[in-house]
Fold:
Amino acid sequence: MSSPSKTLPAWIDVGLIPLINITFAFIVSGLVIFIIGEDPIEAVKLLVYGAFGNDYNLGYTLYYTTNFIFTGLAVAVAFHASLFNIGGEGQAYIGGLGVGLLCLALDQYVPLWVILPLAIIVSGLFGAAWAYIPAYLQAYRGSHIVITTIMFNFIAYSLINYILTNVLIEPGSGSPESRDLLETAHIPTFQDAFGWFGIKIEYTPLNLSILLALISSVFVWLFLWHTRWGYAVRMLGFNNNAANYSGINTRRVIVGTMCLSGALASFVGINEIMGVHHRLIMDFPAGYGYTGIAVALMGRNHPIGIVIASLLFGALYQGGTELSFEISTIQKEMVLTIQGFVILFCGALAYMARPTIERFFFALTPKNQTVAAE
Amino acid sequence: MKKLFQTAAASIIALTAAAAHAEEIKPAVVFDMGGKFDKSFNEGVYNGVEKFSKETGIKYREFEVTNPSQREQAIRKMAQRGADPIVGVGFAQGPAIEKVAKEYPNIRFTIIDSVVDLPNVQSVVFKEHEGSFLVGVLAAMASENHKVGFIGGMDIPLIRKFACGYAQGAKFANANAEVYSNMTGTTPSAWNDPSKGSELAKSQFDKGADVIFAAAGGTGIGVYQAAKDSGKLAIGVDSNQNHIQPGTMLTSMTKGVDVAAYNAFKSAMEGTWKPGLHALGLAENGVDWALDDNNKSLITDAMKAKVKAAREGIVSGAISVHDFTSDNSCPAL
Amino acid sequence: MSIKSITTGQSDAVGEQSAPPPAIELKAISKSFGLVKANHNVDLKVLPGTIHGIIGENGAGKSTLMSILYGFYEADSGDIFIHGHKKTIHSSRDAISFGIGMVHQHFMLVETFTVLENVMLGAEGGTLLNESSKTAREELIKLSKEYSLSVDPDALTGDLPVGLQQRVEILKALYRGAEILILDEPTGVLTPQETDQLFKILDILRSRGVSIILITHKLQEIMAITDRVSVMRAGTMVSERETVATSKNELAELMVGRKVLLEVDKTDANPAEILLEATDLTHEEGGVVLLDSVSLNLRAGEIVGIAGVSGNGQTQLLAALSGICPLQKGSIQIGDVKITPKAHYSPKEFRDIGVGHVPEDRHRMGMVNAFAARETAIMGFHEDPAFNGKILMDQKAIEENCTRLMHDYDVRPEDPSLKSANFSGGNQQKLVLAREMDRNPKVLLVGQPTRGVDIGAIEFIHKNLIKMRDAGSAILIVSVELEEIMSLSDRILVMFEGRIVGEVSGKDANAQQLGLLMGNAGNQKADLPPDEKNKDISNRKNDHSEEVAV
Structure:
């Protein structure tokens, strides 16, 4: 059977099609906004302004982007080995626990430049350890990783809840939170960083963790496409038998990939604990781990795509927040609905428009490009 | 530092009486994760501010946060827009209120369920242990087996505070009473898991308990249903829930969240808003037990008398109810 | 639903198409998948009561054409006429209603159903199964008699040998009223004896007026059974011939578009020292014995062929000899190294001691479709220092390696960045062979050297295998193509149910003898009637009614 080898130019595949999908999503969202009696055009304007309009809005957008890059990369790395890591949420949570514990232990004694590298390592180790167990169970015991990682999210939640309510809580406090971290464990915000150069900007949670996110993206790119380990990961993902045939220890690759994935997700903890909240709190992953799945899907599991998709999701989160501030009838459920449409059209239905565009494209291109069928 | 406030405790109930000239206010409320329809705390606040809005015709701004960093963002946003007063809901908003209140010293903030020590912040907390004590007394007296149960929602210190007050009340009424305590879970879903609530209730009934106090949000509905099915008694929480299963609901421990939210707006409008700690216990009518047509047949005169005595003891200080969160331990459980 | 009684008597169908209109006529059928034109202006005429062969290389468009006829795809343009009437076929349901039946390469049978249930499936004709199953049983028995296709209606389908399963497929089509039967590569899974029986059945069907389209890439089958043959190449119908008026060589040339050498040109082998010796290999999985005490040795300078119907342990043998599957029992001696269940060697370590392996199924194992060619070209060697810097891989070295292999082994297009999936089957196979042969392994294991490979590339691959042999390597070939085994091998081992049941010298081998060994005749399974076992195969021709009624 001739398998149609579809080769659309890259600009259509990664540029035009996502754009069309987003447009679809906004049209449908606009329809819903129209139904509840608001002006869709105004809503889109507010959303875009709310996401990019000024340094304050942009700061929040990029703060979300930071988290999504981490969790998106985590999902993507695992996905390249054909593993579906739903556990980013829990890995981020446990990573944050590691960061929190480290900072609580050291912030009175050493400066930031000592704490930060250690925090990155400890966070990574905690996240990796949390991913290791489901990975081990998948590789050596055949328990399905989707199930186990989901379960581990709950376990992470319970564990941190226990630690916060019983161990780290300040005596006399009703809130399950640790004490505040000292300045030595605060990652400078962009407000601080710009301040060094005498530029004043509004405070936002955006902090230098975003650099870690960008470095991680480059790292993932190099790892996957320019190292022998990445080669093994991708081969395993594409074709398990081929990996076996090539002498790759597939179990070890599964475990290693998941650990890397967990470490990437855990860096959400760096951003949240050291960059924003400056104490260990409940709920800080706030679903970023799950959204990472959509981010990776939309970014085609490629670091560049993930950075772009993260920015889009960051914009949706922040723009959506502003939208519900400005228009009181648009509440968080409506914002969620819009986000849902974007995920639906860009993720789940990503290929919906493809055949049409393909037909359209080939109808416009010269006929002599026939390729020999396999 | 919180002890400083103990003395400054003022009753907002009293404040509402004084009706000075009304001023133009632009009130705002920031609900916490869980949303304003969480059948619990946020919803209580929502009911209070809605009531205010209906009575006065004054619209209020609102926002429901969906992740932790939005708390500060939303509160600051409200402040930037000139909202005043701003009500924050839940202990998790404490740090955010603290930070923003410093930036906007001329705006009035009310935080419900947490304490923020600033001249422009009003902190409203409830002495749930006192209310729980009273329903604990009722439960122990209504129990034939001398065994009573407690089912909490998510396992957090606040809920243990409920459990601890309840257990003390039960032992106060009947020194031999046994108290079973279970938490539904450790995640927010524990607030809304009626089937789990029903399971836990049944297992406590199997162990011999015949009255169960559920402080578990939507999960409680399952507990009440299980109590009705087994012909046992249940106690509601937060608002008067006696109407849910009349005849099964022994009583409800009410918590004036709605009143607190209402009063924050109302007092600001009337110019009587005061910063500082408002710890609302029995003395301030911030917590209470509910008696209405639905449950009056279940409450005997002996019970009424005993509760009355307990209440007076607590208000006068003769009975001291241990607060779990003061040292994170409970002598009665 | 009933079978129309078709007038018997084999019409002299190969003549002019004057009186009856063609059973099937396709006019200017075109179908594209994206840029790929799978069918381009294809015309086909199948006369009633004939067997019409369609031959062509993989990817020539045969399967696409038949899928259009059977309603899996709709043609972009072109018309379909059935018995002279223009028809539109949207689905296989339409096709069936027009009297078209199809027997797929991979059977569409539910193994846990009985024969009767399988035949009825999708044509139950009512909600109550009891009633219709009674009529179906009668119908089935009638059909079996009419076409001499006897098979036990109550046998569990999964228990039947492949040949009989195929018969169930044919019955299924006839039960649905098929007068036109499409068989897609029907002999791929059959032993030579089963193939003979199938052809006898086709002969009977033809004599009862059924029109048959036989799709195959095996020239000898075309010559053996068809009346006419159409040749496809690269999506177009290049030619049509009367079978009696053509030859294998001409058809091969038409298929490929140039002259090809069908015979392998080789000298006698000079086997030297033993390079690999396997002793008593046994492997069991889930209670099924896949390898049963297999012992063999491979000498330098010889090609050893493993013949056998697929699924008789060849796959497991290759997996054991290449380290893909750890040994359970037995040992393998390669040079100084002895591999036992306790001393396991990974596939990488096998490579390190000089064992190359071209897997049977390149898509499943030998390559990664989504990889660029240069990535496929380093599979198994990706940790080689030649391709790696300290941390990052040396992309330049990888690229150069691939370019060189492509050049040396004539892989086209010579583009290391092209996705592996986008090469034709032959070029993919050449790339895999290049990768494995380029390291000059002492021992080379080759599974299905030319599966899915076009004739032109077959010639090239065979030549290179011989060249390697002559250079002193030991080569083991596993193939389901008996002809290939016979023409390449210096020594032939026959596998049956995980055992080696016979050894024949390459020069002395003939298909008949190998076929018997492959079916393990003389040690038949009990479900064949006793008289069948001893029958002289060459005498079977005239005796349909009994023969086929196995």
Notes: The radius of gyration of chain A is 22 Å. Chain A has a mean pLDDT of 88. Chain A has one domain: 39-326.
